[in-house]
Amino acid sequence: MGARDTALNVLIACRRDGAWANGVLKEYCRTDGLDTREAALSARLCYGVLQNRGKLDFYLKQLLTGKSRNLHPVVRDILHLGLYQIYEMDRIPDSAAVNEAVRQAKTHCRRLTWASGLVNGVLRNAVRTRGTLQEPEALADKYSHPQNLLNLLTAYVGPHRLEAMLQANNEAVPVVIQVNTLKTSAEVLIKALEEEGVSAQKHGWMPDCLVLSGTGNLEHSDCFQKGLFYVQDAAAKLSVACADLPENADVLDCCAAPGGKSFAAAIAMGGKGQITACDIYPHKINLIASGAERLGITNLQAQLQDAGVFCPQWENAMDAVLADVPCSGYGIIRKKPDIRYKDPDTMQQLPALQSQILSNQARYVKPGGVLIYSTCTLVRSENEGVVEKFLAKNPDFFTEPLPLPDCFPRNTTGMLTLVPGEYDTDGFFICRLRRKA
């Protein structure tokens, strides 16, 4: 099984079963026995097609003699892979892209005797007419975001910010890591990574944050194995920084997996205080615990607990609560490109769940304590809407200005939405709430 076949099977699973590409891709690369190079190619193909599916369909309509909507789904997946290689990948010969796609059609569409001939004809036509086809102008086609999602995002970010965000969603995602200052410094880690052949630069505005290139599999890095860093976007770390945690604080991270915010909190407190990191899945609890052990964090306890279910022993016990709640994920489309194809109507129930979690977590905050509410989405109903409803029902809480780096405008509302394309981060919402003393 090669990289192209693995990518095709992932695309089929995403389309047919509603699977998430990142999880299925890891599983298929492992079961298909792909080496590092082949796995990287499979990931590039899979994510590239998902990021450009609308644009590829726009080209297909010009390349096909019949109606593109009548294409068999697997044939369309094969054509998408072939077109992506021809139009977007410079290092793959056109002949290899065409021949491999024809082979896939013969292998995966045996009952469709016409499939291999159609794939061969369309892709050879794509090579022959490259540079002469009409380019998409509509944003839905140009950036491969369904129109219903565009309508939703435009309503929040506004038309003047929309295209920069869509472009950012389709760009390669940089690898961002946080320095474990319990063990090392940014300067020392940069030198150690360079000795491993990894280039590291300091992040533009987040202290002890590095942007990497030439990484390969980071888990094989000696620096990673020694616990000198963990992977986390600057936006997620900013949400913890906005809690402004004192040393010796009791902190609860209620939706903690995979543990990045808990790790950031532990490091921010210099390894002092106590952090309780919770999740509802046992395997994720193990993931958090093993991550803390690798980083040498000893003031963290990973615990199985549903964020929406009240835990009496925590009532009024926490100096700070971090509530990074489940959400629609529209701020991390650049990392999970298939989010854009999920039906927005299936997200309608999320504000109710988010409100339940926020209200429950508020019960754990000491008088005078801090509650950070955050999501990785851009939708008002999941962000400001949830906070406003919470404040209306909980007069003992109020928003407090966010302590932000100097590159940000002065914050007065206690709420901030980071939009992709503006601060080199994921899309993220942060709200700082204080309980009256």
Structure, described:
Helix 1 packs across helix 3, helix 12 crosses helix 13 and helix 15 packs across helix 16. The protein is built from 16 helices and 12 strands. The protein has 437 residues and is of the alpha/beta class. It is globular and about 75 Å long. It has 3 domains: 134 residues, NusB-like (N-utilizing Substance Protein B Homolog, Chain A), CATH 1.10.940.10; 57 residues, Alpha-Beta Plaits, CATH 3.30.70.1170; 202 residues, Vaccinia Virus protein VP39 (Rossmann fold). The protein starts with a helix and ends with a strand. Strands 5, 6, 7, 8, 9, 10, 11 and 12 form an 8-stranded mixed sheet that branches.
Structural key phrases:
4-stranded antiparallel beta sheet; alpha/beta; Rossmann fold; 3 domains; N-utilizing Substance Protein B Homolog, Chain A; Alpha-Beta Plaits; 437 residues; 8-stranded mixed beta sheet; 15% strand
- CATH fold field value of the largest domain: Rossmann fold
Residue windows where pLDDT falls under 50 for at least 5 positions? none
Distance between the termini: 62 Å
Order of helices and strands: HHHHHHHHHEHEEHEHEHEHEEHEHEEE
Approximately how much helix is present in the residues?
40-55%
Beta fraction: 5-15%
Write down the Rg: 24 Å
Biggest β-sheet strands, sense, barrel: 8 strands, mixed
What's the total helix number?
A: 16
Total domain modules: 3
Shape: globular
Known CATH architecture of the largest domain: 3-Layer(aba) Sandwich
Mean of residue pLDDT values = 94
Which homologous superfamily in CATH is the superfamily of the largest domain? Vaccinia Virus protein VP39
* Text of the CATH class of the largest domain: Alpha Beta
What is the β-strand count? Answer: 12
- Category by helix and strand content: alpha/beta
